[in-house]
Amino acid sequence: MSKIYKVGIIGGGISGSVIALQLAQNGVDNILFEQGESLVNGPPFCHLHAGGNLYPEISVEQCKQLMLQSIDMAKLFPQSIDERPTFISVPKSENIDVNKIEDKLKLLANYYQELISEDASNEVLGNPADYYKSYSHEDLVALAKQATVQHPKSQDEWMANAIKYIDYENLKMPVFLVQEYGWNLFRLAAQAQLALYKADACELHTHTKVININDVRNQQLDYNWEIRTKDAVYKVKYLVNSSGYKTAHVDKHIQLNSNRLVEYKAAYISKWHSIPGLIPEMIFHGERGSTHGMLQITPYNNDYYQIHGMTKDITLFDNGLIQSKKDGSPAEFDSSIKRKIAREWHQNEINTRTESAIRYAARYVPSFKSATVGGPPLHGAQQIPGDDPSLRVGEVSFPSDSYARAEIVKASSALTVARQIIQKIQEENIVPVMATNAKQNALLDSISKTEIDHLASELAIQRGYPGSLSQLLIERK
């Protein structure tokens, strides 16, 4: 191939896709390689994390960073955001101080107000005065008596709908309702893929495995890297490694190494009986990896619910967290997990783990015991830079000239990484200095809701899931 691309990106997950979109928006020609048949098909996400309230152990600074990043991503992909709140609680069995949770929520509500004061377009999580609301036992008793509302509008209506199903006598008080919205993986994937196919400045290659990378930086050529696939060799000036859990494999091609963890997790799709009104996502905090790890029940359309249970027989796995070797060579999962990553789950495994998740959910939502298996798990592996498994904000590193390693831990960090890479390629004179502070992306804005609806459903079904998982609970205009 004679063409020289400014940037070559390996990996079309959410990070690689957003990097390609931001480069294309700024007129920087780039080429994106994705081994799978479509974009953003790695580890699942379902929650915007606008405040990090699923993680009581992380710092306020990480929570603030997640909020800011989530707001930025929500503005880019509004049609993927489900505007339903999240119920946050602590079972009486847990050694977690609910007062500290509320202290953090107060700080986050104030921070959200500050962000809106700086830029009115940041008000994407509703009114900052409504960012969260706390409820006492007395409040819950009263709300449980209220009639169910099919389409709740107020915080109290959401809570009244939910509390009828929750065994709140076993929860510490207060409990909280927080404006941490849902985030639909399939809709974001659809919008990103449609936009990149339309982008003049991005050449998208799906179904394409990178076989080798040649470092030619010392050969005084007009480019720095040769990316080899089965059919061709592509010349690029700047290389971005956004390969997710295979980040170390790309590093190995160019004799680099870095300390990292790799973790495999799964969430389970269940079908619960129809209930008369919408309910929020529900969080019951617990110690990760124990028999009482955090439970997360995420509602979808048509009575589907996704369940995370942070225990070894539900979301976590024996040998599911591995560390890079001392010589920097890639860590390898055992054969059982490799098979699951390849989407070769045995049906009995799906049934056993989903049924375990349903029983676990019924500890706190008793009538959930009637739920049934609703489809294959949403699952995947991700890298975590360093050696701290509790890290929730991972971004980007620049280990050598003309090379960036994007290692996001949460999907909300993708735009931050893209901006940092664009700044770096300007500093290295790959492209001239340009204005890159646009709040929107015209490529993404050009994609209609109808287009997103159609492709999102197609992607869900293509990956073996119910098409309903591609729909929002609350329709956006």
Short précis:
With 477 residues, the chain is α+β, with helices and mostly antiparallel strands. It is built from twelve helices and 20 strands. The chain folds into two domains: 4-43 and 186-258 and 388-470, FAD/NAD(P)-binding domain (3-Layer(bba) Sandwich), CATH 3.50.50; 70-183 and 262-380, D-Amino Acid Oxidase, Chain A, domain 2, CATH 3.30.9.
The tally of beta strands, per DSSP, is 20
Helix content estimate: 25-40%
Main sheet makeup: 10 strands, mixed
Strand percentage: 15-25%
Full CATH superfamily name of the largest domain: D-Amino Acid Oxidase, subunit A, domain 2
Seen as an oligomer or otherwise, the chain set is single chain
Rounded mean pLDDT score: 94
CATH fold label of the largest domain: D-Amino Acid Oxidase, Chain A, domain 2
Radius of gyration: 22 Å
Number of helices: 12
Assign the CATH architecture of the largest domain.
Answer: 2-Layer Sandwich
Q: In CATH's first tier, which class of the largest domain applies?
A: Alpha Beta
The class by helix and strand makeup works out as: alpha+beta
Number of domains: 2
Taking the alpha carbons of the first and last residues, their distance comes to 44 Å
Shape: globular
Low-confidence stretches: none
